[in-house]
Design goal:
The protein is of the alpha+beta class. The protein contains twelve helices and ten strands.
Length: 279
């Protein structure tokens, strides 16, 4: 999380807080809030908010915010937990948990508790849906799937990811959102037939077979020893060094969704060789 980004509680004066709920009673306060929201969203971080920032904006106590978060949202899609030892320089102190939220989660929790903020979202919604009736087309599921496919392809191109990975992830996303599966067409795509060795991305189980590092669990520990990933809560996250070696990969199983990491085989093989030479 970017600790240089100013907290909203530092933008609004303390006198404007009452019983832990910020009163957005002036247009200027609302404007400051949404400018702050945009700044944090533009940071590009997956979890740019600390749950404690809800205290004073939407909740009087952290424990109440945690209860609402765990009741209505899912980890790791909506938030993640970072465990902290809490130890000070004397080796004492209690362990604690830091709750980091996605932009959607944070904004949703604020809007539920702050009526002026919710009213802004309602106005935007009605403005977007107040088109003439003849302008609102009824589309089939396949048409909606095609629109989503095309839009996501255009956005993905901006990130300069390898085409075969873009196509795989977007087909999964479209299937999840619309129920339309383009998997049968994906396997015939030209980009799927011409994947360079340097572009092969493997999950830990597959990677273990190539590196002879054992099971998926053993390979995850091996990647941790290489300094490429670390376990945060129940999930593996890439380290700053390891981000160049992997990509997040979405998965869906029944009603559950999440992310795991796929690793670049050739890059990791080169890293292992270089470490051996240094050793």
């Amino acid at each position: 999380m970017n600790t240089d980004v100013i907290k909203f509680s530092e933008v609004i004066t303390r006198e404007e807080f009452k019983s832990g709920n910020l009163y957005f009673d002036t247009p200027q306060n609302l404007k400051e809030y949404f400018l702050w929201i945009k700044e944090r969203f533009d940071s590009g971080e997956q979890y740019p908010y600390d749950l404690e920032e809800l205290v004073g904006i939407a909740y009087a106590q952290k424990v109440k915010a945690v209860e609402a978060l765990e009741k209505d949202f899912s980890q790791p899609i909506d938030y993640t937990i970072v465990s902290q030892t809490g130890k000070n320089q004397f080796g004492t102190g209690r362990p604690s948990k830091q709750y980091l939220l996605t932009p959607t989660t944070f904004e949703s929790m604020v809007a539920r508790r702050c009526q002026p903020v919710m009213e802004i979202y309602v106005k935007i919604f009605h403005a977007a849906t107040s088109q003439p009736q003849n302008a609102l087309q009824v589309r089939t599921p396949h048409e909606l799937a095609m629109i989503q496919l095309e839009c996501e392809m255009r956005v993905a191109e901006l990130f300069k990811c390898p085409p075969h990975i873009i196509e795989q992830e977007i087909v999964k996303s479209v299937r999840k959102q619309t129920g339309i599966d383009f998997q049968h067409l994906l396997k015939h795509a030209k980009s799927q037939q011409n994947i360079l060795p340097t572009e092969i991305m493997l999950e830990p189980t597959e990677l273990g077979m190539e590196l002879n590092s054992g099971s998926g669990r053993s390979t995850n520990l091996f990647l941790e020893d290489l300094g490429l990933q670390q376990k945060i809560g129940s999930f593996w996250e890439p380290t700053e060094f390891g981000r160049a070696y992997c990509q997040k990969h979405a998965w869906t199983q029944g009603n559950k969704t999440g992310y795991n990491l796929k690793w670049n085989l050739k890059m990791i093989e080169s890293l292992i060789v270089s470490r051996r030479h240094i050793g």
